[in-house]
Design brief:
Layout: E1 17-18, E2 27-28, E3 37-44, E4 50-57, E5 62-69, E6 75-82, E7 93-95, E8 101-105, E9 112-116, E10 124-125, E11 133-140, E12 145-150, E13 159-164, E14 171-172, E15 179-184, E16 190-197, E17 200-208, E18 213-218, H1 223-227, E19 233-239, E20 245-251, E21 262-267, H2 286-292, E22 296-300, H3 310-313, H4 322-336, E23 341-351, H5 353-364, E24 371-375, H6 386-393, H7 400-406, E25 418-424, H8 433-444, E26 450-454, H9 464-482
Parallel strand pairs: 21-22, 21-23, 23-24, 24-25, 25-26
Antiparallel strand pairs: 1-2, 3-4, 4-5, 5-6, 7-8, 8-9, 9-10, 11-12, 12-13, 13-14, 15-16, 16-17, 17-18, 19-20, 20-22
């Protein structure tokens, strides 16, 4: 059986020790109390004299970056930060040769670059504005500059930039409207640039640090567009009832006629740490198959998803599902208002957090969503792991109402539409027990539903199993919404 510490249960008690390669006694680092604290990142200083860790409290709204002497184990706090909701960690943390620290943080609601000098001195801010620094690509200590990708040009794309350690000389390096995925060499002299946008398949080019082309490694294969009759993807921008700006992705059905009413398939993830609506090429997908069968495809990034700042992410704090659903309903209202989406034939599908949101949509807005395919869904948040779940909901002991209201298993009696529930027996992420509990709740409530269970699969379904699943999902939505 698969096991991990579930929300509210004890975590592993972790210590950090330094062992001599030649043998001898382990020296344990003294970062303080270990119970209900997380060691999330670990680094050696350049001289190997200190071990630096990112230490978080259990609910992850208090970060202590601490350095311990490798010989004595004595530790001190270098950086201490708190947040009313949570602190999002990433791997943008660089210990420089002169002892300074270059990192990214969300101090003002958007992730930006900061240069830390020493305790008690305010960090030097290198970037600012209502956009996100996505990741550090390379740190050039000799030239005193840092290369990074960010969303300054558009929240739906990624571009490569460079800025000096003094916060000056910032400039954009990559060109073209779309998304650049960058892999830069350790010397910061060259980078591999993989680029695509809505209308252009991906290409990969080797470039110098100034952006000039060295060699084309892989050209964009535009023949794919015609060979597979790829339908155009559109980006829609609109405001919700409270003025929030939303971005949606739409694929209109083949042979589109604006005078007709089409069934809608809402593709959903909707959870933290992901951004689904991007100016990038989505390729040959099941969405394209369904659009060719006469469905209107729609996807919206609701509040709670990433890429648009900490404030946009935090509304799901202590209550998952509710804000996400309200925003998804705004999206359906928007597309049905265009005149060609049938409000009586709206389906929804997703996997993992998207599977959870599919269930939540069907059970809490049955008047909007008439059919759904939910894959690998968390059905009771008490079943999921401590680190992820408690970051957003706190513990079930101190937020029992939030857990109950966020968990679909407690709303099984609300099912009115058609449901296909999919899960893998050996799922090591969202354990199979989630599906069993949901099935039991539906059966006790007298609700009919369909299931697909896959043995020998973990969190995803690949190979022949995947084609089997997609064929079933296709027929499910054809029967539910086309006929």
């Amino acid at each position: 059986p698969q096991r991990y510490p579930k929300a509210g249960t004890p975590n592993a008690d972790v210590r950090v020790g330094v062992a001599v390669a030649a043998g001898g006694e382990t020296k344990w680092m003294d970062y303080g109390e270990t119970r209900d604290y997380l060691i999330a990142r670990l680094h050696w200083t350049r001289d190997s004299a200190q071990v630096v860790v990112h230490r978080l409290n259990r609910v992850q709204n208090h970060l202590m970056i601490m350095a311990a002497d490798a010989s004595s184990g004595r530790a001190r706090t270098i950086i201490d930060e708190t947040d009313p909701a949570r602190i999002n960690l990433n791997d943008d943390f660089h210990l420089l040769a002169d002892g300074r620290i270059l990192r990214s943080a969300e101090k003002d609601g958007f992730r930006h670059l900061y240069l830390h000098f020493k305790e008690g001195k305010e960090d030097k801010r290198l970037t600012r504005g209502e956009y996100e620094v996505s990741s550090i690509a390379c740190v050039d200590e000799a030239a005193k500059q840092v290369f990074y990708t960010g969303t300054e040009a558009s929240p739906l794309g990624r571009q490569l930039y460079v800025v000096g350690f003094d916060g000056r000389g910032k400039r954009r390096i990559t060109e073209g409207d779309g998304s650049h995925s960058v892999s830069m060499g350790p010397g910061c002299d060259y980078f591999m640039d993989t680029f695509s946008n809505l209308d252009t398949p991906s290409s990969t080019v080797l470039r110098k640090a100034n952006g000039s082309q060295v060699k084309i490694w892989r050209e964009a294969d535009r023949k794919l567009l015609d060979e597979f009759d790829i339908l155009k993807t559109e980006i829609h921008t609109f405001k919700g009832a409270d003025g929030t700006v939303f971005y949606g992705r739409m694929i209109k059905p083949a042979h589109f006629d604006p005078a007709k009413k089409y069934p809608v398939l809402v593709s959903i993830y909707g959870g933290p740490g992901a951004q689904s609506v991007r100016n990038s090429f989505s390729g040959i997908s099941w969405d394209q198959v369904m659009a060719h069968k006469g469905f209107l495809i729609w996807q919206l990034d609701n509040r709670g998803t990433s890429g648009r700042g900490h404030k946009f992410e935090t509304p799901l704090y202590r209550r998952m599902g509710k804000q996400e659903l309200e925003d998804q309903k705004e999206g359906v209202k928007y597309i049905t208002g265009l005149g060609f989406a049938d409000p009586e034939r709206v389906g929804v599908y997703g996997w993992s957090y998207g599977g959870y949101m599919t269930l939540y949509c069907l059970l809490h807005a049955p008047e909007v969503f008439k059919a759904g395919s939910a894959g690998a869904a968390v059905t009771d948040w008490r079943n999921y792991d401590t680190i992820y779940t408690e970051r957003y909901l706190g513990t079930p002991q101190e937020n029992p109402g939030g857990y109950k209201d966020s968990s679909p298993v407690h709303a099984a009696a609300n099912l009115k539409g058609k449901l296909l529930l999919i899960h893998n027996i050996e799922d090591d992420n969202v354990l199979f027990g989630n599906a069993l509990q949901m099935m039991n709740a539906f059966q006790l409530a007298g609700k009919q539903f369909e299931t697909l269970i896959y043995p020998g699969k973990s969190h995803g379904v690949m190979g022949r199993g995947r084609s089997h699943m997609m064929e079933k999902q296709t027929k499910f939505f054809e029967d539910a919404l086309l006929k």
